[in-house]
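Hello again, I could really use a second opinion on something today. For a while now I've been wondering how a particular protein folds. Please have a think about how the structure follows from the sequence. Here's the protein in full, and shout if anything looks odd to you:

***
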Amino acid sequence: MNVRRPAAPLLAGWALAWLAAGAASAQGASELPVAEPAATAPTPVALASAASCTAVAGARRRPTAAAPAPTGPVDLSAARLRSEGGAQTVAEGEVVLRRAGMQLSADLLRYLHADETAIAEGEVRLSRGEDRFVGSRAELNLRTEAGVVEQPRFHVARAGAGGQARRIEFQGGRQLSAQQAAYSSCDLDAPGGPDWVLTMDRLDLDFERNEGLARGAVLRFMDVPLLAIPTLSFPATDQPKSGWLPPTIDFDSRAGVVISEAYYWRLAPNRDATLMPVISSRRGVGLRGDYRYLLPSDTGQLAFHALPSDRVAGRERYSLEFSHEGEVSGGLRYQLTGQRASDDAYWKDHAKILSSWTPRLLPRSAEALQPGRWGGLEWEAYTGVQGWQVLQQSDAAISPPYERVPQLGLRGRWGGATGLQLDFTTEYNAFRRARSSLAPTPALTEPTEGQRLQARPSLAWTWDAGWGWLTPRATVLASAYDYPAWVSDSGGTLTGQTENAHRSSVVPTFSLDMGLRFERPLSSLGADLLQTLEPRLHYVRTPLRAAQASLPLFDTAASDFNAYSIYADNAYTGGDRVSDANQITFGATSRFLSRDNGTERLRLGFAQRYQFSEQQLGPDVSSGSSRFSDLMLFGSGQLHERWHADATLQYNVDLARPARTVGTLRYQPGPFRTLSGTYIYTRGQSEQYGLGWQWPLYQREASGSGQCQGTFYGVGRGLYSKTDGRLTDALAGVEYDSGCWVFRVVAERTAIGQATASTHFMVQLELVGLSRLGSNPLKTLKDQIPGYRLLRED
């Protein structure tokens, strides 16, 4: 699970910035150098205001960091300067006090020599970096860095918000106190008041102890109190602090209404934990937790979910997830990972909790690796175990994979990027079929366990002259197996008895990879480009070893056919099969690069394989009579500054029709405007259409002002299966950006079975410059909508 840092009011942020600015303006020698009067008036202070249509579309950028504390000499200029008996220096008329990164202006400034105090009166204006402050009176002590500001108004760029207070007192860079403070990113002077505002009777900040305390805090939205807390404690700096996080509310079709609130526990600077009580209207009361640590040579995380009594399932439900990696003396690295769920249906009922790419195969593993070097030989010794928890369902059972119990190996490399190179891998594996509560009955020829010892030496020589390359390579895979095999009677019928089978295989492979590189300047559509042409030939010769067909498949599967695997020596992944081959693969790639910055604007290419002799052992031996493989065509790039495309076509030469097609086209004319379409086709299996979007739907204007008061955005993604005749996965929602707050409503539908799906509703109110309230859909939107951008950057 993700750990969120405490969402304390960003009032502490602007207070810190103001304090740094005020204290910095008070630093310097007791004698101020006098400069010529300023030729221009001080820059007006820009306070928070209602965003126009242009501002709403363009103000979304990452908040700026606080400016560094001003240093160096102080420069004072004014229309009139006078000294009164050595007791004080008085500056009048367009008074400007400057220091690197800071400027203070006022109508009148008095400097008291005895206690080194500067008193600014009139319209006091202070700017530091992009932050702006206005007050009626300021008193700063240059020696102690203490002071007070009366009736301050402020705007802090890094928070995109500001406010006002009756009085602010500070003691150097250590403590700050504000009275009758109001904070918002909306216009405080708007008719009817700001859309949202956080008011406090008193705010005390202690930056040394990282403690902030707000008394009489009330958060109002549309003049409706959302939160009223007599006393609120929060971090006073950017460092996290133990405390309660804002509550969240989720709506899920399988869990009902889910309310949770997390407590963040700052154990140490390098260790923290989160505990989150969860109340589900359908499932009951549960608890989630997370513990993280970061040590000099170790890092890890442990997460859990406990539901003592699931009212729907009628039993206890839980999950565990952990990861740890570290390094000990001598360079030994190790890693531990694991996931565990209470039952087979957990992945459907609690799909958002376990962060697994394969929700029905939960991994657990332990690995250790020791690198070393001997002369010019770099080597690594490694060992590990790998297991799985298989979550089954009756209408779609899956075959459990094999576990490694254990794996031991040694691999090494000698040689550089060019010239002679030697690679070798020696590995021992003990395999065992993972246990499962429900699974298809495996074929009798598939053993439940077995052992495999392999050695794979490889010798290559690489020559690269820039305009071309050549790499001949010789590889040998030697394997020895020991596993229980079924016994057959004289008629070839399996008797149901087993005996230990000892099998071995030695498969040599020779390959030759070569290619050329051409390039030329090209001007197209007003762009200064560099076009490359890279033809490539790849020859492979592997003799047939028919005995491999009777060996078990412990970790081996057919490689996905794509623009990279078509140039591979072997059509399989894993160590149990090596396809026989007497083949040549030919293809070419052309790239269009920008000569200004070297970015790739477009890539086009093709590749096809030809078998000189008919292949006997391979994943495609029965796909057709032609010795030509499918033709692979691919392309990707930026067709225009607004258009992006990515497509792959696998064309079957026997059937004269596409075997597989994947294409994506995205139109992105500007920020927060993206429209993408996806087409996925696999002959005889599936055909899918996808659509994703983020687009402004409507802009609301203030009556008679011509200014935009807010923009509605539509967001979503849908995947429709033509084969099944249904919408498999869908995401749709609306975002409303008023300029100082954002409201999001998103619904997500995810297929969890042949005829079942889970629906999840997320509602969030983001008060810009303060916090986000509700369930967070932002990660879902970024992951599923191509080109999606946050209306407000993190």
